[in-house]
Amino acid sequence: MRSISIKALLLSNLANVLFAVVGIVVTILLALIVEISVLGPGHIDDAFKGLESSSDFGVVLCVPVVIANIFAGFIAGRMAASQRVLNGALSSAIIILFGIYLSIFGWDSHTDYHQQLPSSVDLAVSWGGPIFGALGGFAAEKIEPRLVLSWTLAFPAAAGVYLVVFYIAVKTHSHFLLAMASAVAICVGAGVAPKEHRKQAFVTMSVVLILIPLAVLIWRLSAGGGSTGNYMWIFYNGMGALFAFMWVRKYVKPPPGGTISR
């Protein structure tokens, strides 16, 4: 039996590129929203320049690339009949080939971008794709696709609901809705997550919604910025997590003789 699946190799590499591009675009858009919300609608150019010159944001952009590598490895592992870890590692072949091409022929914009990254991060992201892909392939042997799909959908569902309610709150100048944005997002994300993991999903969504504004605050402070809005964002999301916890405790009944589904 052939160890390397050509179908898995081609489709997983395509998925790797697509996931990475979409992830980077979404990350940039979210970062611009945060920057513009702090600087004001008339400072779009300043927001772009701030992100471009930020070494911290360069590291943040590496996150969707790593996640794409892992997901691509998982896809390759599920498609391969055997040697799932090997096929997962090969899901980053196109990224490695592209890196070799750049190392030989160079690319000015690529070089400028890399100057924003610590050398260790640059090395891990540029050449660590097969390792991350192998982790995805290993996960394909151990984790049910149903669980991966549910968890994968849970975060976009929570993010989408949060952005919609947050937008309405800003337009209506409602402080209550600013807190409810995170409360509703937590409940929706936990509801989309696998039934047996909902307790962990609830905690994860709550922690993420507090860590994101906290990370933004640290980022702004390190750049000599920071504002009352950054502190209030943490406060609103924290209150939202509390509201979500109170709502679940009051209205979501555990099954007879048990606890709420984990």
Keywords:
12 helices; single chain; 262 residues; mainly alpha
Description:
It is built from 12 helices and no strands. It has 262 residues and is mainly α. It has 2 domains: 1-143, no CATH class; 145-262, no CATH class. The protein is flat, with a radius of gyration of 21 Å.
Please outline what is shown here.
With 262 residues, the chain is mostly helical.
Describe the secondary-structure layout.
Blueprint: H1 6-39, H2 44-52, H3 55-79, H4 84-89, H5 93-105, H6 108-114, H7 119-127, H8 129-142, H9 145-172, H10 175-192, H11 198-222, H12 228-251
Helix pairs in contact: 1-2, 1-3, 3-8, 9-10, 10-11, 10-12, 11-12
User: Shape, please?
Assistant: flat
Question: Tally the helices: what do you get?
Answer: 12
Unreliable residue runs = 109-115, 255-262
Question: What percentage of the residues does DSSP assign to strands (E)?
Answer: under 5%
Query: SSE order, as H and E?
Result: HHHHHHHHHHHH
Oligomer: single chain
How far apart, in Å, are the first and last alpha carbons?
40 Å
Number of domains: 2
Radius of gyration: 21 Å
How helical, in percent, are the residues?
over 70%
Overall SS class: mainly alpha
Mean pLDDT: 80
Question: Mind describing the biggest β-sheet?
Answer: none
* Number of strand elements: 0
